[in-house]
Amino acid sequence: MSFAPPRIVPPESLAQEAAAWMASSLQDALKTRPRASLALSGGGTPGPAYRALAAMKLPWERVDVYFVDERFVPPDHKDSNYRLVEDTLLKPLGLPASQVFRMQGEREDRDAAARDYEATLPPVLDVVLLGMGPDGHTASLFPGHPAMEERVRRVLAVVGSKPPPWRMTLTLPVLNSARAVLNLVAGEGKADAVRRALAGDLSLPAARVTNTQWMLDPAAAGR
Ligand SMILES: O=C1O[C@H](COP(=O)(O)O)[C@@H](O)[C@H](O)[C@H]1O
Q1: How far out from the chain centre does Cα 115 lie?
Q2: Prediction ipTM score
Q3: Alpha-carbon gap, residue 160 to 64, rounded angstroms
Q4: Which of 73, 88, 140, 161 maximizes ligand 1 atoms within 8 Å of its Cβ, making it the mutation to test the pocket?
Q5: Largest CA distance in the chain
Q6: Would you say residue 52 has pLDDT above 70?
Q7: Against a cut of 0.90, is the pTM above it?
Q8: Domain architecture of the chain: domains with CATH
C-alpha cells in the first residue's frame, strides 16, 4: 500500500486549499447524486478551512453534514467538535438542523449514543476531512487501541489518550469506504507521525485509511 505524494501547501494558503478540495469533492459527488454527505473532524487545525468553505458558493441545500468524531462533552463545550463546526461553518452558512447530523456527546450512555449515530450514517460518505494528532491519532482512533481493529461496527465509543478521553468515532471501514478523503495536517509536532504514516507504518490509524489524499504544511512535511 502506498499513498499519492502529499500536497505541501504554504501555511497562508492551507485553509483556502483545503476548502477548495472540499468544495470540489462535494461538486463531484453532486454531479451524480441528489445529495452529498460531508463528514468533518475537530481539533485545532481545520477551523480556518471551514470558515473558507462557508464562503464558497455551493448548492448547500443539497449537502448534509456529519462528524468524523466527537468528544463526550455537551455541544456548547469548548472541546466539542460540533461547536467548532457550528461556529465556523454551520452558523455562517445558516445551515438548517435537518442537514446536520451531530454526534451526541452529551449522552450518558456512550455505547447507545454510538449505536444511534451509526443509524444516521449513509451507507457511504461522499467527502471526509480527517486530521492527525502528534501522537498519530486520526478521528478518535488512537494507535494501539482495539478500535483500530473494528471491522463490523461503524461508530464506536472509545477512551482515548488525549483529553477529553471519552470520545465517539467513525471506524476504519467507514473511512475506507468514503468516496473522497483528505488528511489535513499542520505543524512541526506532527512531522514524525506524518513521515511514519506515509511510510506505511500500520500502527498508525492514518496509515490504514488507504484512500486518503494528504495535504500538509511544510512543517508537518518535515521541511
Ligand atoms: O482530538 C482530535 O484530534 C484530531 C487532530 O486534531 P489537531 O488538533 O491536531 O488538528 C482531530 O482530527 C480530531 O477530530 C479531534 O477530535
Answers
A1: 19
A2: 0.98
A3: 27
A4: 140
A5: 44
A6: yes
A7: yes
A8: 14-216 (3.40.50.1360)
